[in-house]
Design brief:
Blueprint (H helix, E strand, L loop, with lengths): L23 H39 L2 H30 L6 H21 L1
Helix pairs in contact: 1-2, 2-3
Length: 122
């Protein structure tokens, strides 16, 4: 195998009944295939936590525990669903489920919005 390989010719491909890779091979398969979707879902989760961080920091600057608790609860309303969406995106990638990450993320966000508000607030 040389430095410049001809990638235009057809190769043997992957057998349909091939077993799932394990170990480091599985890791690099996921990184190569789903890293973009996982990164963007994680970025959305980080952006969803920005209101919590800002509001709690304002309560910290005011030196008021009540303001901090209320602001954490208000910010957690958004933090819970975005975290659930990120978990769903990563777990679907690990299960090799087909689909574009944005449509599955939106669907998971909508389906888990009401049920993830309480854990987000807590």
């Amino acid at each position: 195998m040389g430095l410049f390989t001809n990638y235009n010719k057809e190769g043997p491909g992957v057998d349909k009944d091939a077993p799932r890779k394990t170990g480091i091979g599985r890791f690099f398969e996921l990184v190569g295939r789903d890293m973009n979707g996982m990164f963007l879902a994680n970025l959305l989760a980080c952006l969803g936590f920005v209101p919590v961080i800002c509001l709690v920091y304002i309560g910290f600057l005011m030196r008021s525990l009540l303001v901090m608790l209320v602001s954490a609860a208000v910010g957690g309303v958004l933090a819970g669903p975005v975290l659930a969406g990120m978990y769903d995106t990563v777990l679907r990638a690990l299960r090799d489920e087909p689909g574009y990450w944005w449509t599955t993320y939106r669907r998971a966000f909508r389906q888990t919005f009401k049920t993830s508000i309480l854990p987000g607030v807590l």
